[in-house]
Amino acid sequence: MTENIGNDAGEGQANAEAEERTLIQRTLRGDQSAFACLVDKFRNPIYNLCYRMLASGGDAEDAAQETFLRAYTQLHTYQAERKFSTWLFAIASHLCIDMLRRRRYPVQPLESVALWKQSNDPLPEDYALSEESSAEVRTLLKLLPEKYRLVVVLRYWQDLSYAEIAEATDLSESAVKTQLHRARRMLADYMMKRKEAQGHAVSRVL
Amino acid sequence: MRCQECFELMSLKLDNQLTPEQADKLDKLLRACPHCVRLWIALGEGEQILQDEGRVQVAPPDPDAFTTTVMRRVAAQNYVLGAHPERHPRILEAASHRARMPKFPWSPGAMRPQVMAWASATIAASLAIAAVTWLWLTSTLNTRMGNDAPPTRLALLQRAITDVGHTLNWQLLIGALLLAALLVGLWLMLVSIARRRLGDWEATE
Question: Which of B45, B53, B85 has its CB closest to that of A134?
């Protein structure tokens, strides 16, 4: 449409942010259709975050809707210098952690999972985007305590920087870093345990 | 001890935050420790899964329905932005639930304010007229008692009323009726005024 087809990503982002600001202003003036545009724009990342945190489509839908409802009623507290998406992520994160605490999953011990997933595991090379790996990653995420899971999801699924994760979780950047390291460590331990179990299985067969 | 240090370096490497000296150190540590190498491989595998899987974004099953539901809930809250910063969304949600409940057709809340004003005025007026009539009948009766003139139709009616009246405390009953009529009328009027105010407030939203 416009002449400058070759405009860089930075400019596109600036445009998007300007549009966001306009929509927020319009919503604050009482225009609900403007808020509908914001929901359209952010429903996917918010739903995605909730889905990864709660591992259930129904709960994810509830949490995502509640996020937007809260965003609407608290919109006057939003500070324009923050990124709107980060602000939404912060609301969604709080809600998901709340829901998880109310749900109180019994924590699965690492060993039981490792033994349960002994056979038919694809080799690391096959981990493309198969169903298998989705189930795998769900298992992995469930192993992590809520706080670590949140940081991992924000880092890998929402592609946020440490600074943005810190803002969304009310943590310091170094705390974010520590939690991410611990989460990685837990996942690595799980991978090693599983491999050991596999090794035993193979040696028994041979 | 060294393995912990090694792990920290590995984690930094995953974030591409290693200085050249730290990279050298990690290299040396990895050469010396097979356990650390295994950990490094496992970390790499975990990282690979997360990065691959992180590209898979899940969307709501029905995206348009999602937005519609959110907006319906937003509208159901009757929330004027910025007007009630102290109200908590949970309370609003409860309120919207109440608003959606079907109303009993004859409850004051379900009537239109004008209808209610007329209805209340009519009830109050008819009750008042009835009460005054009773008072008048019973009081004129007392003044005509003992008259020798043949009883008129009115007098007969009055006598019939007093015959019943002797067994009841009419004055007290009428007083109570009047008071009740007044209270009911007043209450209905107040509610109707409040509802009209509320209607105006909703209309300006």
Answer: B53
- Cα angle: B187, vertex B192, B193; to 5 degrees: 100
d(CA A67, CA A38): 12
| In chain B, % of residues over pLDDT 70 | 61
User: What single letter denotes the amino acid at residue B93?
Assistant: E
Copy the structure tokens of residue B129: 């007229």
Residue identified by tokens 């889905």 is A51
Q: In this predicted model, what pLDDT tens digit does every residue of B87-135 receive, in sequence order?
A: 444 444 444 444 444 444 445 555 566 677 777 788 888 888 887 777 7
Q: How distant, in Å, are the alpha carbons of A41, A42, B44, B159 from that of A37?
A: 6, 9, 40, 80
A138 Cβ contact partners less than 8 Å away, ≥ 6 residues apart: A55
Spell out the long-range contacts of B22-31 with Cβ–Cβ below 8 A and sequence spacing 24 or more: B29/B2, B29/B5, B30/B6
Q: Residue A197 in contact with residue A110, Cβ under 8 Å? A: no
pLDDT at B164: 64
Determine how many CB atoms are found less than 10 A away from the CB of residue B170: 17
- Identify whether the C-beta of residue B36 lies closer than 8 Å to the C-beta of residue B29: yes
Closest CA to B14 of B42, B33, B35: B42
Question: C-alpha B122: how far from its chain's center?
Answer: 31
- Please state whether the predicted TM-score (pTM) of the whole model is above 0.80: no
Q: Is B69 on the interface with A (CB under 8 A)?
A: yes
Q: Which of residues 83-102 of B touch A (CB under 8 A)?
A: 85, 87, 89, 92-93
pLDDT, tens only, A1-19: 444 444 555 677 778 888 8
Q: Is A34 an 8 Å CB contact of chain B? A: no
What would you report as the CA-atom Rg of chain B, rounded to the nearest whole angstrom? 42
Which residue type occupies B121? Answer: A
Query: Cα–Cα distances in Å, from B204 out to A23, A111, B80?
Result: 22, 63, 10
